[in-house]
């Protein structure tokens, strides 16, 4: 799995986050674990964990099956 692949999928979910004043930054991809940073309104949102797991992680795993987990750093 390449960092470019992950960036391409994040570009698909980014508009949803930006509508609510947030965004996501890719930090690192290592051994099937994608590390991201939620920024803007997403950084302090009580729903951030739900967004991370059910939104971002679900979409990434759907399109790149090698992904084991997405974590916020």
Quick synopsis:
This protein has 73 residues and is an alpha+beta fold.
In CATH, the topology is named: GMP Synthetase, Chain A, domain 3
How many helix segments? 2
**Helix percent band:** 40-55%
Output the helix-strand order: HEEHE
Q: Could you say which structural class the secondary elements and strand pairing correspond to?
A: alpha+beta
Number of strand elements: 3
Name the average pLDDT.
Answer: 91
CATH superfamily: Fe-S cluster assembly (FSCA)
Strand order in the largest sheet = 1-2-3
CATH class group? Alpha Beta
Determine the oligomeric state from the structure.
single chain
Low-confidence stretches: none
Approximate strand percentage: 25-35%
Instruction: Calculate the terminal CA-CA distance, rounded to whole Å.
Output: 20 Å
Indicate how many domains the architecture comprises.
1
From the alpha carbons, calculate the radius of gyration and give it in angstroms.
11 Å
């Amino acid at each position: 799995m390449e960092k470019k692949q992950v960036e391409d999928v994040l570009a698909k979910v980014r508009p949803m986050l930006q509508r609510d004043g947030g965004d996501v930054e890719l930090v690192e991809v290592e051994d099937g674990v994608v590390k991201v940073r939620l920024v803007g309104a997403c950084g302090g949102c009580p729903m951030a964990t739900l967004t991370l797991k059910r939104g971002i992680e679900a979409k990434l795993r759907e399109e790149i099956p090698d992904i084991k987990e997405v974590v916020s750093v």
